UniProtKB/TrEMBL annotation, chains A, B, C, D, E, F:
Organism, as annotated: Marimonas arenosa
InterPro entries the UniProt entry points to: AhpD-like, AhpD_core, CMD-like
Coiled coil residues, start to end: none
One MF annotation (Gene Ontology) recorded for this entry: peroxiredoxin activity
Name assigned to this protein: Carboxymuconolactone decarboxylase family protein
Gene3D superfamilies: AhpD-like (1.20.1290.10)
Domain Carboxymuconolactone decarboxylase-like: residue ranges: 51-123
Cross-referenced NCBIfam families: ahpD_dom
PANTHER family hit by this protein: CARBOXYMUCONOLACTONE DECARBOXYLASE-LIKE DOMAIN-CONTAINING PROTEIN (PTHR35446:SF2), SI:CH211-175M2.5 (PTHR35446)
Length: 132, 132, 132, 132, 132, 132
């Protein structure tokens, strides 16, 4: 269980209900996942997080699938169980193949390994890496 | 300064020197960055990490540039100063535009925000996100 | 299950039993939560952690409720499931309202977002922020 | 140095310049710190982060000083050098006394200690801590 | 459930099956734990991770039991539930006594506490700690 | 610079001065490192952290050198620059050889790699790993 109840549709404030309607319309499914049902206790934050997510994760200079894989990488590094599950499902829905997922795991493992090595060794940044 | 000295070319063991030669040949530059000079105290690990990195970060189901951006996302979440600098430089060298970098920052910020919210609220994973 | 058994009252060493008695007296409840039952395998550490917690989390320059909210913020950032649950319960018991909890979530989300942005961008510290 | 240049006032886009003007007006100082100068490469994100920060960190159910201390706690747990410095300066400007800062350090240290213990021991959450 | 299915023996590719055979032979048990069954979707990575683990965690300048305790310390700091469980079991199988485990918990708690304090206070590194 | 000044000997309160005297006597050196000079603003915490560190890091079921290496592993995983430097220096003073340090780096890298993989894949804990 969460630290708050997960609000059912009939428990939503009008503002939260409007956000849920937009989530459903945007995603083309009636299913609204638990994250939003927990956030719905704070309708202003629900609206802010959803509108931010909708804008950021949409098409742009980066492909939405690439964005989902970046999200998985952050979530794994932060040990966020829920986010690993939800964004892996989202990445698959956007076309992530098994081969892509395998390579994503490779990069996540490699990056966490070398991050720890570099932090342990406290390697100084090369001058050539710095922005002007 | 690192916790170890950064080995100059003339201080390398033969095994480490061979790895440095491969780094130079693979990257097409004479410059070998500090991470490898710190790792070179352990030639077996130097060789293992380099061969793993070379294989993982190369072309495959994911584009090398996408892999670099995933690396940046992990490094930012782990607060690895060196890795943020080195992989941002690498991503730019592989064609990351300012627009792409901006969107990468957006996703990294968003993911860290929602990871923390989900962890604070301890949102339970939806059944539909689970494999099987 | 934990990596150790959770000790029942009748399994406690005399030292651990004395700590449990103080926990009960201090909190005014017979309930002793699982954290202490796991720590009780190491009575010296149990006593040290409990006495430290009792002193630190009590009244002082900061209100005990403020301290509980700070504890939640740390626990969310560290992905500590148990601690998010136990300190959210403690904060509510000390008077945290829904409005306060909502704002706490806002700050936790915001801070994790900008921490990641700053780490990714490696923003140098302004001279005016430094002591002296 | 950051991974991007820190934009000077004369390098800002009109949108970024408007945000800087609001930062100055809101804070009552001409000084705009480095974080915003790094973010200014992405005027949309600059505006979004600033407006979010301004709203979240202002008065509400929690005191702005309490919010700054929560921010410090998150930043310390995430090893964000810049954020520790900037939010400690902000907390002091909002009235954080040395006694308050000392207690904040105590809680941050304590929470990180017990988070790690709980994670190592994998203590199961007590039923009484769960919502509902 | 994992984000992937856990492969049963009869679902393994020939390469993955060979790795499982080596795991069984090396460990002297028929039991292959879930981590390898999840990794087996990527036989190349399975082989690479297993061969790396087998080499690194074996005898050397450090005792294998010491290595397992270091592994637990990292896993607790990273909030990795699975790794805390699996490496605590491994350490016990290699002879970790209750007294050793208690002291390990003490060090893990202490290190996480002072890490957070140092990060919050941003203590500058003493010159005498730096390698030549 | 730290967020607080580093107190010189002549700025210490009597309580803090007594702790410094004990640090010097225990370590057999006149040098007191920056961490204690930052903590000295809070003499009660200085005394508590020092007495805890002195007790925990001393001889017991685990060798003091093993404890220092565990400390390094935690500090690397938490990206604590100061702690990586100070505890690497301490481990060397207690006899850590280059070969031992190399293997420590190997384990730290490996553990952070598999922690991230396990978190990404959300591998369920095997029943046989659980206590009882």
């Amino acid at each position: 269980m969460a630290t708050v109840t997960l609000l059912a549709d009939e428990e939503l404030s009008p503002k939260a209900a409007a956000v849920f309607a937009d989530i459903r319309a945007t995603r083309g499914t009636d299913y609204v996942n638990n994250f939003w049902r927990a956030l719905a206790h704070n309708p202003d934050r629900l609206e802010a997080v959803w509108s931010q997510l909708k804008q950021i994760m949409g098409p742009g200079a980066l492909d939405p699938l690439v964005k989902e894989m970046i999200y998985i990488a952050v979530s794994a590094s932060n040990a966020c169980e829920y986010c690993c599950h939800s964004h892996t499902a989202a990445a698959r829905a956007k076309g992530m193949s098994d081969a892509m997922y395998n390579e994503l795991m490779d990069v996540i493992g490699m990056a966490n390994q070398t991050n720890a090595l570099v932090n342990a060794l406290q390697v100084p940044v090369d001058d050539i890496f710095r922005a002007e």
